[in-house]
Amino acid sequence: MKFPNNTLKINDFEDKTLLIVDDDDPFRGRLGRAMTSKGFEVTLAKGVEEAKLMAKKKPPAFAVIDLRLLDGNGLDVVDEIHRIKEDSRIVMLTGYGNLPTAVAAVKAGAIDYISKPADAEAVEAALLAAPDRKAAPPENPMSADRVKWEHIQRVFELCNRNVSETARRLKMHRRTLQRILSKRSPR
Known about the structure:
By secondary structure, this protein is of the alpha/beta class. It has helices at residues 25-37, 48-57, 74-84, 99-108, 120-127, 144-158, 163-170, 174-182, and strands spanning 17-21, 41-45, 62-66, 68-69, 72-73, 89-94, 110-115. It folds into two domains: 4-127, Rossmann fold, CATH 3.40.50.2300; 144-182, Homeodomain-like (Arc Repressor Mutant, subunit A). It contains eight helices and seven strands. A five-stranded parallel β-sheet has the order 2-1-3-6-7, with helices on both faces. A two-stranded antiparallel sheet has the order 4-5. A hairpin with a 2-residue loop joins strand 4 (68-69) and strand 5 (72-73). The termini are far apart.
């Protein structure tokens, strides 16, 4: 099969099932709606055990799985899906990207690894990339300042908007964090 522009279209696949596993409710919902509008048949799961049950019931053709979940590690879900349906196209998402986890994700059966925050276009490009090629880089990627801002905001929300706790976890001075939070987000 030839792949124009090194990517496939969702209509090139008979099975359009997509399992999205993420414990961040707003992100999971937004990504689910976006992927549904792109033609995928989306199922959502919040954690490892729920995702494994769904995968056993109906093995997905595609999966987007967060690395760190409240009840465990997303790599366990990748292993389970890959064991049940070896040709499933799986993309790992994480807010804590590093080389060892990227290697572990690919060894477990993921076809790509994307750092959060990720948008639906990047996820779709990774899922539909030709098997022998990586997805094309985004046309308009987020600036480094924006990625930093998004990470700080995510940690701030995970710390229940507690500035002192967020500053401690980010290893920065509380007043520096307060100044960053008081500014508008970068573009």
